[in-house]
């Protein structure tokens, strides 16, 4: 924990009024943003596939975007969309 605090406060004047902002920026710089982005893309693609399979493509995408893999469970446990029977020719 001390190593994390040392990284977050590196180069920050703790007596400055905007020290919290510099600490926040240092913390945000330590987050692996590209990995999080690609994981989110994977979650949305799987959610879209599950939603398409259940007849609720948009719901699958939205739930996966908002909740990640937990959204997959939501999509799987909602009932399939009821489609009316085809009209006779």
Question: Which properties best describe this structure?
Answer:
single chain; 89 residues; mainly alpha; transmembrane; membrane; transmembrane helix
Detailed description of the structure:
The protein is 67% helix and 0% strand. It has 89 residues and is mainly alpha-helical. It folds into two domains: 1-31, no CATH class; 32-81, no CATH class. The chain is rod-shaped. The relative contact order is 0.10. The chain crosses the membrane at residues 20-50, 57-77. Keywords: Membrane, Transmembrane, Transmembrane helix.
Give a brief rundown of this model.
This protein has 89 residues and is mainly alpha-helical.
| Unreliable residue stretches | none
Largest sheet: none
Q: Radius of gyration, rounded?
A: 22 Å
Helix content: 55-70%
Number of domains: 2
- Supply the number of helical segments: 5
Query: What is the first-to-last residue Cα distance?
Result: 71 Å
Q: How would you sum up the global shape? A: rod-shaped
Number of strands: 0
Structural class: mainly alpha
The averaged pLDDT comes out at 90
Multimeric status of the protein: single chain
The succession of helices and strands, N to C, reads HHHHH
User: Strand percentage, roughly?
Assistant: under 5%
Transmembrane segments: 20-50, 57-77
Keywords: Membrane, Transmembrane, Transmembrane helix
């Amino acid at each position: 924990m001390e190593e994390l605090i040392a990284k977050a406060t590196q180069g920050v004047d703790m007596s400055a009024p905007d020290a919290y902002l510099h600490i926040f920026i240092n913390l945000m710089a330590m987050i692996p943003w590209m990995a999080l982005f690609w994981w989110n893309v994977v979650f949305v693609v799987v959610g879209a596939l599950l939603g398409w399979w259940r007849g609720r493509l948009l719901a699958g995408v939205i739930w996966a975007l908002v909740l990640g893999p937990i959204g997959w469970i939501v999509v799987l446990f909602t009932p399939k969309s009821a489609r009316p029977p085809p009209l006779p020719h």
